[in-house]
Amino acid sequence: xxxxxxxxxxxxxxxxxxxxxxxxxxxxxxxxxxxxxxxxxxxxxxxxxxxxxxxxxxxxxxxxxxxxxxxxxxxxxxxxxxxxxxxxxxxxxxxxxxxxxxxxxxxxxxxxxxxxxxxxxxxxxxxxxxxxxxxxxxxxxxxxxxxxxxxxxxxxxxxxxxxxxxxxxxxxxxxxxxxxxxxxxxxxxxxxxxxxxxxxxxxxxxxxxxxxxxxxxxxxxxxxxxxxxxxxxxxxxxxxxxxxxxxxxxxxxxxxxxxxxx
Amino acid sequence: xxxxxxxxxxxxxxxxxxxxxxxxxxxxxxxxxxxxxxxxxxxxxxxxxxxxxxxxxxxxxxxxxxxxxxxxxxxxxxxxxxxxxxxxxxxxxxxxxxxxxxxxxxxxxxxxxxxxxxxxxxxxxxxxxxxxxxxxxxxxxxxx
Lengths: 262, 144
Known about the structure:
The structure holds two protein chains of two kinds.
Chain A: H1 16-29, H2 32-41, H3 43-52, H4 60-77, H5 86-104, H6 107-133, H7 139-146, H8 150-159, H9 192-199, H10 203-207, H11 212-223, H12 228-235, H13 239-261
Helix pairs in contact in A: 1-2, 3-4, 3-5, 4-5, 6-7, 6-8, 7-8, 11-13, 12-13
Chain B: E1 16-22, H1 29-40, H2 47-67, E2 73-80, E3 83-91, H3 105-110, H4 112-121, E4 124-130, E5 133-141
Antiparallel strand pairs in B: 1-2, 2-3, 3-5, 4-5
Helix pairs in contact in B: 1-2, 2-4
């Protein structure tokens, strides 16, 4: 995770004149050999960008691969006569392809989960390590034990709660109880909408169809498990309004998930 | 156990400002990343936006470190109800070996690949680098 290779910007300068010539030629004849040259000449750019997304849990090689797809798209679409440097043009395209890869993998559900898990792992490791070491535990101790970077340990403690997508098996701290309850224990009777939540790892993609207010309501209702009345109080609107927004949000989600499946 | 951070709703936040100074050394960039993420997470940013923000902040800090200058890198984060604005700055002349002030043409636009990357990740970016220092202003809006 900490192996973020830093490449000096100066090394990434490409021979711009050569690139311009190639593009001019490629524009006229679409010669695959020149396309190949252009791809090879810009692989460093792809690598440079891929490495920067390397701390998000996907292998650099995979990212380079999808990034290269983005590069090829950029080469094919680039209009050299518009006077824009190719690098300027290609960077967003390559990043777009890399980010699409994360989205397709349901990454924005996995990351909070990983942080949550790290958060719990830290809490456990603090006790066992303190016993082993016979002293208070440092962040470096925890990082070494859990195979994470110091930054990740701190982040999991500080932001683990803010990244509030909770597993249903998340243990909730309950003072004075022998066994800590899980979030699942607090979930009521089977609810069609909730089953949807459990079953759809790709819900994250669907959630984009909601406007921010609907998203907040879905979040508070099904992740925070607040009642409509509580949500209404928090948002300072009527319970009826929350009910309507919730119904509309769920209808949208169902529709979106159906379309995805179909 | 820590209380979960309550979920702020749009409009409920007044403009808030946090400033941070870090030594101009790569090993301090993580502190700026964490700080920015911690502040941004007070708005309802998606995980993806938060990660993008962290990456952009790291690149901005690295840009300041690489360009050279005097003293610290400063970061000022300003939180409004619908956006976060992060200004990263290092004063002083460029000192990178072989570096020249990007006076004209492509170079003024270029400023290294890091700036391209930042532009691709943020909603608005202002970049300037000259003999008085390196400055980057990054804006990320909610729900984009």
